[in-house]
Predict the structure.
Amino acid sequence: MNVVSGAPHIVTRFAPSPTGKLHIGHAWSALMAHDLARENGGQFRLRIEDIDGTRSRTAHADAILEDLRWIGLDWDGEVFFQSQRLPIYNAGLDRLKAAGLVYPCFCTRADIAASLSAPHGPEGSLYPGTCRQLAEAERSARLEKEAHAWRIDMAKAVTLAGALTWNDMDAGTITADPLAAGDVILARKDAPTSYHLAATLDDADMGITHVVRGQDLFAATHVHRLLQALLDLPTPFYRHHRLLLGPDGKRLAKRHGGLTLADLRAGGVDPGQLVADLRRGVFPVGICVGNA
Ligand code: GLU
């Protein structure tokens, strides 16, 4: 597919969560997004997904900017910090509340795990719908005094939105199947949004035309496509690239050690050479690109 078709001006982004250090898998992903923009005279934006108050660290966010500068990746415009955009996510949630498409969920993880009826979806157990079925009186009473998340009523939302597709640069036209994700959380008990809602609203606000991210987020795109339809947002092109795997065949993670950009820098690695190698698909010994 011609990646430029339908998009006169390409805008891509890299959107790391500052919950740890960047490793070469992140660098590879960032480079793909960066190069797609630069090769087409477009823009490359940076967004720090720091809504997880318990796991996000300012020190990690600072280190991400330093690591990206070290490998020579320059981004356009201001860095977006999700923690500074909570009112925007609230407004998005309010629209969905007004449309009757979300409901408060009081369940704990233990409640959900204990539910024998929890069916399985692409990302583990699906929410069994306990709080969707609450009577209005109980819901209002509990809303007053109990911590709650907000979940989408997926069946209702899908019925309202109708058939949806997106253009995937590698996989072609994909028919969205958000129902498979179940009633996902759009606002958490401990944060006024969730990854799905924040990322979808941000991609639209940042004018992202091409979302380049790992295959691990393919299932999320089904949900994002639905949210775009419900919130009248444009749909970008997507590329879900394969993931880098460690010598054990598992996706790169902290346990693989020595592959963070900070480690490589401390070890005297030349960043120009590192980037040239990543662009050519040459990785450190034992690291390879996954098949699926
Ligand atoms: N923050 C997500 C991550 O670090 C990426 C989100 C995205 O690219 O949409 O895995």
Notes: Residues 15-17, 49, 199, 213, 217 surround glutamic acid (CB under 6 Å).
